[in-house]
C-alpha cells in the first residue's frame, strides 16, 4: 500500500507496529535527515551521527511490535538525544584524559594516582549531585565535565537558557559545598 502524504504520525506508528514496511520507509524518509542533522550538530562527526541514526532506525524496526509511544517525533528525537549523550559520555574528556595518559604512560610514573584522583573527583561530584533530579545532574555534567555552553545545553534539552543557568547555579553551589565538606573532613582526619 503506497503511503499518502496525508498519513499522520499516529497512523504511521500503527502501521509500523503491525509490520507494514511502507510505514517504516515513510518514517525513515521523513525523519532520517533531521535526526542526522541533530546528532551531527552535537557531535560534529558525520560517521558517528550516521551510525547513531542508523542504530535508532534498526531498533525501531526490530522493536516495532513493542513500541509504547504516541508521539513519533518526540520518540525519535529523544532517542537521538540519549544516544548522543551516551556517545559523549563514552568518549568525553575522561576518555581523552585516559588516552593521553595511556599514550605517554612510560613518561608519567603517577598515572595510577592521577586516574584514582580523577575517578574520586567524579565520584564526589556525583555524590554532591545526588539530591538533584536527573535533568539537573545531566545539565551539570554536560556543562562542567563535557564543556558544553549554556546555549548548547538549552538547545539540546529544549529549555530556555535562563532555566539552564538557574539549574546550573543551584547544582554548582551544592557541589562546591559538598566538595568543601569532603575536603574539610579529609583535613580533619589527617591532622587529628
SSE topology:
Layout: H1 9-17, H2 21-43, H3 46-62, H4 72-91, H5 93-103, H6 111-129, H7 134-145, H8 150-157, H9 161-190
Helix pairs in contact: 1-2, 2-3, 2-4, 3-4, 6-9, 7-9, 8-9
Keywords: Sigma factor, Transcription, Transcription regulation
Organism: Dyadobacter jiangsuensis
GO molecular function: DNA binding; sigma factor activity
What does this structure look like?
With 192 residues, this protein is an all-alpha fold. The protein folds into two domains: 9-91, Orthogonal Bundle (Rna Polymerase Sigma Factor, Chain: A); 93-190, Arc Repressor Mutant, subunit A (Orthogonal Bundle), CATH 1.10.10.10. The chain is 78% helix and 0% strand. It is built from nine helices and no strands. The chain has helices at 9-17, 21-43, 46-62, 72-91, 93-103, 111-129, 134-145, 150-157, 161-190. Helix 2 runs antiparallel to helix 3 (46-62), helix 7 packs across helix 9 (161-190) and helix 8 packs across helix 9. It is elongated. The model has no long low-confidence stretch (mean pLDDT 80). Residues 34-91 form the RNA polymerase sigma-70 region domain. Keywords: Sigma factor, Transcription, Transcription regulation. GO terms for molecular function: DNA binding; sigma factor activity. Belongs to the sigma-70 factor family. ECF subfamily. This is RNA polymerase sigma-70 factor (ECF subfamily).
Amino acid at each position: 500500500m503506497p503511503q499518502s502524504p496525508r498519513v499522520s504520525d499516529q497512523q504511521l506508528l500503527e502501521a509500523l507496529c503491525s509490520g507494514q514496511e511502507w510505514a517504516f520507509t515513510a518514517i525513515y524518509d521523513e525523519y532520517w535527515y533531521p535526526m542526522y542533522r541533530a546528532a551531527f550538530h552535537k557531535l560534529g562527526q558525520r560517521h558517528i551521527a550516521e551510525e547513531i541514526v542508523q542504530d535508532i532506525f534498526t531498533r525501531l524496526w526490530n522493536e516495532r511490535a513493542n513500541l509504547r509511544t504516541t508521539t513519533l517525533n518526540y520518540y525519535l528525537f529523544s532517542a537521538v538525544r540519549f544516544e548522543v549523550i551516551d556517545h559523549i559520555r563514552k568518549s568525553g574528556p575522561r576518555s581523552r584524559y585516559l588516552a593521553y595518559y595511556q599514550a605517554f604512560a612510560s613518561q608519567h610514573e603517577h598515572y595510577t594516582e592521577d586516574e584514582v584522583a580523577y575517578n574520586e573527583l567524579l565520584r564526589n561530584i556525583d555524590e554532591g549531585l545526588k539530591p538533584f533530579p536527573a535533568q539537573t545532574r545531566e545539565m551539570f555534567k554536560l556543562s562542567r565535565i563535557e564543556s558544553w555552553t549554556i546555549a548548547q545545553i538549552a538547545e539540546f534539552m529544549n529549555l530556555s537558557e535562563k532555566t539552564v543557568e538557574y539549574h546550573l547555579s543551584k547544582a554548582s553551589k551544592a557541589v562546591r559545598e559538598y566538595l568543601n565538606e569532603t575536603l574539610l573532613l579529609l583535613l580533619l582526619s589527617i591532622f587529628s
